[in-house]
Amino acid sequence: MVRINRKLEYALMVLKYMSAKAPSELTTAKEVADFIKGPFDTIAKVMQQMVHSELLRSEQGVQGGYFLATNLNKLNLFKLNEVVSGPMELVKCFDEDHHCELSSHCNIQSPLVTLNRKLIDFFQELSISELLRIKSPLSAKSQSVKKEVAG
Amino acid sequence: MVRINRKLEYALMVLKYMSAKAPSELTTAKEVADFIKGPFDTIAKVMQQMVHSELLRSEQGVQGGYFLATNLNKLNLFKLNEVVSGPMELVKCFDEDHHCELSSHCNIQSPLVTLNRKLIDFFQELSISELLRIKSPLSAKSQSVKKEVAG
DNA sequence: GTTAAATACGACATATTTTGTCGTATTTTC
DNA sequence: GAAAATACGACAAAATATGTCGTATTTAAC
What we know:
Chain A is mainly alpha-helical and 151 residues long. The first copy, chain A, has a domain at 6-87 and 127-142: Winged helix-like DNA-binding domain superfamily/Winged helix DNA-binding domain (Arc Repressor Mutant, subunit A), CATH 1.10.10. Chain A contains seven helices and two strands. Chain A has a two-stranded antiparallel ribbon. The longest helix of chain A is centred in the last third of the chain and has 16 residues, at 109-124. Chain A binds chain B through residues 1-5, 9, 12-13, 16-17, 35-38, 77, 81, 85-86, 88-92, 102, 104-108, 111-112, 114-115, 118-119, 122-123, 126, 131-133, and chain B through 1-5, 9, 12-13, 16-17, 35-38, 77, 81, 85-86, 88-92, 101-102, 104-108, 111-112, 114-115, 118-119, 122-123, 126, 131-133. Chain B binds a DNA duplex (30 and 30 nucleotides) through residues 1, 5-7, 28-30, 39, 41-42, 44-45, 47-48, 51, 58-66, 85.
């Protein structure tokens, strides 16, 4: 089954939620968890991962929270998935460590490499702002917007 | 992590293996299992599922086996995945029975519907013969081939 | 007609991955 | 100092994927 995981869903929900606010306004993990009625801990961790990758920035302590630190026009689904779920590998045979035990007799390795490449391209071409239909006030302010997103 | 599963891999390996033979020649599950050094039972079941969906046909008894019963030019990856792994649903919220518990407060449902549609289109456009680079003697014989597969 | 080789298929067992929880530390405001 | 927040590793639980077993059935060969 080809399925995106919860972490990526949470990340998308977070970005959607935060993008509705003014860029300077902070958002807490609790706030998002309450809003989507999801598990606080997991959502908090996803947001922390996004801080590591500089998609968000955080302020600690009382009154702390997170704010957007990236242009959602330039962020794509491949990157976001990588941030929260690690490298996108269509099949096991691609990862370095524990490579697939069938690989020595596999008759479809090259097709799978091709397929993996195509799938990565597919996800890379999907911008988050387009996907989530975000007007993106931050990006409009901080960076030149190359093309208007239609629809 | 977006990853195709073993069953789909086995199905592709089976088709690749079988397509190298003359259309009339039978292939046993054991033969494929030996060739790719994979688990016989699982591979046999995948082949049986392919019989159900009429991608293969089978002959029972000693000297029995499977043979191709479909045009691999017309078979696409979406269909093949569906046959061996059930419906392709990007996210849980789409399936009828146990729908996602977050759906009532989800703020990204419509984007996910769109994404799911795009992903399905992506897989539907990938023909098996193209993916596996199969010359497809069966289809060349039994059906008119619309366009030659380049590369 | 018995045996052997094969498909057919449900039930179960195991392994892997995903998802969520807990505990604890740290930062900052009040 | 207390409270509200991020930070983060370790573990637990749940879900899913994968593989195995047992048994039935079909058919060819002997």
